[in-house]
From TrEMBL:
Disordered: region residues: 1-23, 249-281
Family named by the database record: Belongs to the nucleosome assembly protein (NAP) family.
Name of the protein described by the UniProt record: Nucleosome assembly protein
A Gene Ontology term for the protein's cellular component: nucleus
Domain of life: Eukaryota
Biological process annotations from GO: nucleosome assembly
InterPro entries from the UniProt entry: NAP-like_sf, NAP_family
Bias (Basic and acidic residues) ranges: 258-281
Length: 281
């Protein structure tokens, strides 16, 4: 968001002013005017970001009717979105055996951007089924300062029967008069994606855990969301046909435009270059 970008650039300018004050007078003579030009450039850059977001939002609105037409065409196609998700190299790792029957009822995935910000919402639409009461599952992402993702608010799934994200186990009797108990374990599932996550939760995990693999739930969740937003939804029919090869597309782009970046991520850093796609900073 523009306010966050402005805040970041103001901090950089303040640090630059502090360092400038430490320089000898003869060095200040040429660094001071150079810094003033940098500030002018920063002002233009913020205008660029504002116009870029407006342009992205404009075309998101123009894509939407095309996606809606596609939805009407393929809504009765058996397992269309299940096949799409299984043919994407990232989302296929999120799908497990117990998920597939419910994912056969997935009839559309929609993306909604928010004007003037980088916040966005994903919607997963399902037909009536025997697994859950919900017909729409959502995930809403809120961005914070410095374009960091702060949280992803998901839908609470109302299961009709077994919870696909959990496994119920009976525990053995311990002691003469003890009864067998029940233990509920979390298991990997595509539908854990709809649990709410927060960057604050990750910070707590990092402080409390010595495991280097812990504390990245928000990052992994956001990466999956961006892949669905930037790859799966726009190129669904390519994934269904199994012809989408991102490495080949990168090579084609490099051949045609050696200095170009793949137009997947939407974030731009303070130098005017694209940031790494869909990563928390």
């Amino acid at each position: 968001m523009e306010g966050n970008d402005s805040h970041e650039l103001k901090l950089q300018e303040k640090k630059a002013e502090d360092e400038l004050s430490k320089l000898p007078e003869n060095e200040k003579a040429y660094v001071q005017p150079a810094l003033e030009l940098q500030k002018q450039r920063n002002t233009l850059f913020l205008t660029f970001l504002d116009e870029l977001r407006a342009l992205e939002y404009k075309y998101d609105q123009q894509y939407a009717p095309l996606y809606e037409q596609r939805s009407q065409i393929i809504k009765n196609a058996p397992s269309f979105w299940l096949k799409v998700l299984k043919n994407n190299p990232l989302t296929t790792t999120m799908i497990f055996e117990q998920d597939e029957e419910l994912l056969k009822h997935l009839i559309d995935i929609k993306f909604f951007s928010e004007q003037g910000s980088d916040n966005f919402r994903l919607e997963f639409h399902f037909t009536e089924n025997s697994f859950m009461e919900n017909t729409v599952l959502t995930k809403v992402y809120t961005m914070g300062a410095d374009d960091e993702v702060k949280k992803g608010d998901g839908t609470e799934i109302k299961w009709k029967g077994a919870n696909l994200t959990q496994k119920v186990k009976k525990t053995k009797k311990r002691g003469k008069n003890k009864k067998a108990g029940i233990k509920v374990e979390e298991i990997p599932s595509f539908f854990t994606f709809f649990k709410s996550v927060s960057a604050d939760d990750d910070d707590e995990v990092e402080e409390d855990s010595e495991d280097e693999g812990m504390g990245n739930m928000m990052e992994e969740d956001y990466e999956a969301a961006c892949e669905i937003r930037d790859e799966v939804i726009p190129n669904a029919v390519y994934y269904y046909l199994g012809i989408r090869d991102e490495d080949d597309m990168d090579e084609e782009l490099d051949d045609e435009h050696p200095d170009a970046k793949k137009p997947k991520g939407k974030k731009v850093d303070g130098s005017g270059n694209e940031k790494a796609d869909c990563k928390t900073q």
